[in-house]
Amino acid sequence: MATKITYTQQGDYLLPDLKLPEQPKIEIGIWGKRHLRYLEKHHPIIYTNLLTSCKLTAYLADIDEQAEDMFFRLVKQLAKQEGVTEQLKADNQMMWVQKMNNIRNRVTEIVNNELIYS
């Protein structure tokens, strides 16, 4: 079966009407979306190659999953290392929130540096 190519007039030129195949419908989380913005801005060739080869969505879903796993693993490790326990939460809730926010912020920076913006 031959594919019919259509063209659009742009000034003096006829340009082919190109369309990418449908990308699979995969939900991309916050980490994947951050990495997508980074690729578009700082690595347009990689972004275009992934997009035109129909691998972008799967790639971003993989990055998102890796980042999510890394985030929760590091938060758990640091909380244990720094003694942020359920007992602290029961005894001094404000201190627990402060320490957990500090840990989450540090881990977010680590994930961004290691996976998202690299």
Topology:
Blueprint: E1 7-10, E2 13-16, H1 30-42, H2 44-52, H3 56-81, H4 86-91, H5 93-116
Antiparallel strand pairs: 1-2
Helix pairs in contact: 1-2, 1-3, 3-5
Can you tell me about this structure?
This protein is mostly helical and 118 residues long. The chain has one domain. It is 66% helix and 7% strand. It has five helices and two strands. It has helices at residues 30-42, 44-52, 56-81, 86-91, 93-116, and strands at 7-10, 13-16. It has a two-stranded antiparallel ribbon with strand order 1-2. Helix 1 (30-42) crosses helix 2 and helix 1 packs across helix 3. The longest helix is centred in the middle third of the chain and has 26 residues, at 56-81. The two termini are 43 Å apart. It holds the Pfam family TnpV. It comes from Ruminococcus bovis. InterPro entries: TnpV. This is TnpV protein.
Provide a brief overview of the structure:
By secondary structure, the protein is mainly alpha-helical.
* Run of helices and strands: EEHHHHH
Residue-averaged pLDDT: 93
Instruction: Kindly state the percentage of residues in helix.
Output: 55-70%
Q: What kind of oligomer do you see?
A: single chain
Quantity of strands, as a count: 2
Strand content: 5-15%
Count of DSSP-assigned helices: 5
Poorly predicted sequence stretches spanning 5 or more consecutive residues: none
Rounded Rg? 22 Å
Q: What's the end-to-end separation, in Å? A: 43 Å
Strand order, largest beta sheet: 1-2
Question: Please, how many domains?
Answer: 1
Shape: elongated
What is the SS-derived class?
mainly alpha
Largest sheet: 2 strands, antiparallel
